[in-house]
Specification:
The protein is built from 21 helices and no strands. By secondary structure, it is mostly helical.
């Protein structure tokens, strides 16, 4: 049946897909997903570790490097096509395909001999990296009990910090003795382990529940469903998630990549020094940022947690780039505060993005709002900062972008629904009821006029 029409509600006697407690499998599932998420972050962070070297070897200006980042980040947008297929074929097969895809293109990046080839391979790798991470979050959101859902998503979103720490810690030694290509080849090593631990993964209960109820979605219906998230029924939640993700990316997109260039050029850091600062910052953020966000979402609610983390992220990144002190301990403290807010903001936003759409179109809704339209700022911001940096310097260029998450925080506090302590089915039913009421009021006003 078409998800464009109202979905049948389960009868009182029908088995619910909602888990009531944490089982050994659910704990194991977190481990299966964490393994790949850590390696995702490792591979993404390699670009930041080698950025000053790549830029210098190819004689790129800040504007040109910003363009390279723009093209690479478009790969994450292109993951929309892979991610949306998870609503037809299932979460498990598509996440397996994603792991294989980013392994292939990460390895090929190490063989690139020109900036054009390097950019192309990284573009392709980012397609699969973004799809894998999104599917991991969706799986946790669908499988975990209500009271564990925000914490599970927060842990998964924050655990990637370990991959970033590992990347910069590895770069501390590798870049002092080897070519930058070695970093990408090292990134291939854990892929076999990921595939082995994934053998025990099952399809999510909610997806199996919907498939048993509605049958397998035909390809024609799948194409029709791609339009559903922006139909009137889902328009508000789609626009909300899209807007706050873009506000978030104004600072998270350029943060580490442009900071390593700023550190090398303006603070005169060596790769070993800036690697220590970033690794220490992510270690602090991993231990405190996302876990704290997960607990606050259950206590203060999603809205206040997300809003506070957004505003904190804006202040933190402005302080990081505006501080002229080259003391490693000063930059480490500022970086740690920055990553604390970044990881918490990402955890809160990912929670909203996975909770607001029904299972039938959850991957499609996530792909539209998070991986496609939600990444416009992520794509454009590095180029904008590059252009501005060639004229006013990197610190001022990044500082201008700090307005983004402040706007996002205010939008969340004003318009976002509170989803704390509600099952995914309760959230969907509540939003459907509100959207229906809003549509009736709008129709009545049009009739009166």
């Amino acid at each position: 049946m078409s998800v464009a029409r109202s979905h049948p509600q389960p009868s009182p006697t029908e088995a619910s897909p909602e888990a009531t407690e944490m089982t050994p499998y659910l704990w194991a599932l977190l481990g299966m997903l964490i393994s790949a998420t850590v390696f995702d972050a490792f591979n993404i962070s390699i670009l930041s570790t080698v950025a000053p070297i790549i830029q210098e070897q190819n004689g790129l200006t800040n504007t040109q490097w910003g363009l390279v980042n723009l093209i690479i980040r478009i790969g994450a947008v292109s993951s929309f096509f892979i991610l949306s297929l998870a609503d037809r074929y299932g979460r498990r097969p598509m996440i397996t395909l994603s792991v294989l895809g980013y392994a292939v293109f990460t390895g090929l990046t190490g063989f690139s001999r020109s900036i054009e080839v390097f950019t192309f391979y990284q573009f392709c790798a980012r397609i699969f990296l973004a799809a894998e991470f999104a599917l991991a979050l969706i799986i946790i959101g669908e499988e975990y009990p209500t009271r564990w859902r925000s914490l599970g998503i927060s842990l998964l979103a924050g655990i990637g910090a370990l991959g970033t720490i590992a990347a910069f810690a590895t770069a501390h030694f590798v870049l002092a003795n080897h070519d930058w290509r070695t970093m990408y080849w090292i990134g291939l090593a854990p892929i076999g382990l990921v595939m082995l631990v994934r053998l025990g993964m099952r399809e999510t209960r909610r997806f199996e529940h919907v498939r048993a109820r509605d049958g397998t979605v035909s390809f024609r219906q799948h194409l029709a469903n791609l339009r559903v998230p922006f139909q009137r029924r889902y328009r508000f939640r789609s626009l909300l998630v899209t807007l706050i993700w873009n506000c978030n990316h104004f600072v998270t997109a350029p943060a580490v990549t442009f900071w390593t260039i700023h550190a090398a050029r303006d603070l005169h850091y060596t790769p070993q020094q800036y690697s220590v600062v970033v690794a220490a910052g992510y270690l602090f953020g991993f231990l405190t940022g996302a876990p704290t966000a997960g607990m606050l979402m259950n206590r203060l609610g999603r809205k206040w947690t997300c809003g506070l983390y957004y505003i904190g992220a804006a202040v933190a990144i402005f302080a990081l780039f505006a501080t002229a002190s080259a003391a490693v301990w000063v930059q480490t403290v500022l970086m740690s505060v920055c990553i604390f807010f970044f990881l918490g903001a990402g955890a809160a936003t990912n929670t909203f993005a996975t909770e607001l759409f029904p299972t039938e179109i959850r991957a499609t809704g996530y792909s539209w709002t998070t991986n496609l339209f939600g990444r416009i700022a992520e794509i454009v911001t590095p180029l904008a900062i590059g252009v501005l940096a060639d004229r006013i310097g990197i610190p001022f260029a990044v500082g201008i972008m700090a307005i983004g998450p402040i706007v996002g925080g205010l939008v969340v506090l004003r318009y976002a629904p509170e989803t704390n302590n509600k099952t995914l089915e309760e959230i969907s039913a509540e939003l459907d009821g509100r959207d229906t009421y809003t549509a009736r009021v709008s129709a009545g006003r049009r009739a009166q006029s």
